[in-house]
Structures are given as C-alpha cells and as structure tokens.
Amino acid sequence: MASVKEPATERTAVLPVVSDVPPLERRGSTTFLAAIGLVWFAVSVVVIARWVGSDHFTPAPKIGPDEMESWRLIALRIFEVISLVVLLLFIWFSVIKPVRDTGRLSLDGRFVIGGLVCFVADAFLNVQKYLFAWNSENINMGVWVKFMPFHNPDAPTQYAESLVWGPPMYVYFCAGVAIVACYHAKKVRRRWPYISKVTLFTGIFVFEFLFDFIVENVVIRTTHAYAFANTYEPLTLWAGEVHQFPIYESILVAFVGCVFTWMRMEAEDHPEGLSPIESGLVHWRPELQGWVRNFAVLGFCMVTLCFVYHLPFNWLGMIGDSVADMPSYLLPA
User: Fold this and answer.
1) Are 226 and 315 in contact (CB under 8 A)?
2) Which of 19, 64, 214, 277 counts the highest number of beta carbons within 10 A?
C-alpha cells in the first residue's frame, strides 16, 4: 500500500533581523567629558580670578552676639588640622608618589585633582538661597558665590566658606570612598565570586551612606563648622534644630561615591586599566591623550557632582520649609 505523503507544515524560522542602519561606533564619552572638563576649568579660573581681585576676597565678617563655646572652637581647629592632613596624604599617595614612580598620573590621582577643582562648585549650594550655613570662625577668605553662573542677586554673598576642611571633603567623599570600597569589594568578590553587581553595589551604597551620615553628624554636633540652614522637612531629622540633618544629604553623597567606585572598579577589571571615562582615548593623537584624559576625568567629576548631588540638593532645599534655629555665627553677613 502506497504511503500518502503528508503536506509540509509551515514552520516559522527564527532569522536574524538585518538592519540597513550601520551600527554606531563605540567611541565612549571621552571627548564629550573632556569638553565639559575644559569648560568647567575655564569657568573655575575666571570665577576665582574675579573673586581674588574683588573686595569680597577677605574673611567673612562676624555678626551678632553669639559666641562659640571654647570646646567647640577647639574641636573646629582639630577638624581643620585633621582635614588638612588627610588631604596632604591623598595628594602624596595618589598624585605625587605615582608620578614619581611611573611618570604619569593614575586614575586616583586624577580623581583627587578633579575633586579639588570641583570644590569651586561648592558655591552652587547657596547660589540661589542660603541653604548650607558656614561658621564665621572657619579659616576663610569669604566666598566666590557672587561670581558663579546662575547666582541670584538676592542671595547672600558674604559667608565663611572653609578653605581648610572644605576641599578635603571633595576628595575623601569621592576618591577616598572609591579607593576603600574597591579594596573591600575585591575581598567580597574573592569570597563570593558569583555575587551580582547589584548586590555588591547595594552593600557599597549602604557603607557609603553610613560613612557620610556618621562623619557629618559628628562634625556638625561637635564643631558647628556648618549646618543645613533650610531643608525639606519630610526628609529631615531633628527638624528645626541647629543640627537638623536632611537624610537626602547622605543618600546623594552615597550615590556620588557609588559612581566614583563604579568607574574605579571598571578600570581595575579592564585589561589595560582604562575606565569608561577613558575609553575613547585611542581616537586621539598620542601627544594629546594625556590632556584629553585629564580633562575627561575632570568633566566626569563635575557632571557627577552637579547632576547627582548639587541639583537635587538645591531643588530639595528650595522647596523645603524646615529652617534651622542657628546662632549668629552661622548666619551670612
């Protein structure tokens, strides 16, 4: 009996989708970040030059009747000394020593220098309103906020921005936490080699959140070096007190630390030690690569600090209604 041939059934073949659009080249963000870094460097030079050449380049006047307790003033001076020592150690171990040993800057060294240059952006904290209060007993030469872009003419222009403990914060809360986090992350990855990146960075975020929360609250309560003058009350602890603390401060600082940690970790995992910031260097002439790399890291520092910290902090402060009850030495002139 002849077999009947069954009709062929249609089967859907899985075929690759061919696009007529050529793929974009993966040149990285190096050139874009370098352009931002160059612009910010130029802005910083102009702002500081105008400030130094103005009558605002003088210690902020002390107003009002309130005087700091002697023990607080001593604690403030100790904090300034510790901050200065920490900064010098970072400069030695991350900038000077690597240059002496290898003849070139490391990513850590660029982060340290980038943090110092980006300290100029600290004036953005009060560019619209007095949100971040400074103690007139800080070692200072006033503040350059009047010469910053987007400055509100009605905002205060005379207060004691610290020149001693301020810059180190932009180093140890960025480069510092990244160095420490990567060191301990290596230990965790050796112990649990299949840990996910989400789990790892959740732990890093918690560590950096607690580090900021503890350090800032100890400094605020013991030294009165600074205070949060105006905050968003639903996210503020001890609202209305001189030591009121916006919890979003530690959240934002932790996010900043995580971004720096991510860049450093990516560089450690890269066969040539390049972070995503530097991925497009190959498209530049060799004699320009050093300059492009420096400005790209500076641009990365500025973009991260601006969009992850300064803008959210200012927005939450501007809509906030929790005003700290501060002594006169924390008020602007």
Assistant:
1) no
2) 277
Three-state secondary structure of the chain: CCCCCCCCCCCCCCCCCCCCCCCCCCCCCHHHHHHHHHHHHHHHHHHHHHHHCCCCCCCCCCCCCCCCCHHHHHHHHHHHHHHHHHHHHHHHHHHHHHHHHHCCCCHHHHHHHHHHHHHHHHHHHHCCCCCEEECCCCCECCCCHHHCCCCCCCCCCCCCCECCCHHHHHHHHHHHHHHHHHHHHHHHHHHCCCCCHHHHHHHHHHHHHHHHHHHHHHHHHHHCCEEECEECHHHEECCCCCCCEEHHHHHHHHHHHHHHHHHHHHHHHCCCCCCHHHCCHHHCCHHHHHHHHHHHHHHHHHHHHHHHHHHHHHHHHHCCCEECCCCHHHCCC
Nearest-angstrom CA–CA distance, 260 and 176: 9
State how far the Cα of 168 lies from the Cα of 326, in Å rounded to an integer.
25
User: Residue 8, Cα to own-chain centre: how many angstroms?
Assistant: 65
Report how far residue 226's alpha carbon sits from residue 256's, in angstroms, rounded to the nearest whole number.
Answer: 21
Measured from the Cβ of residue 311, the count of other Cβ atoms closer than 10 Å reads 13
Q: pLDDT, tens digit, for every residue of 116-173?
A: 999 999 999 999 999 999 999 999 999 999 999 999 999 999 999 999 999 999 999 9
CA angle 208, 179, 222 (to 5 degrees): 45
- Give me Rg for the CA atoms of the chain: 25
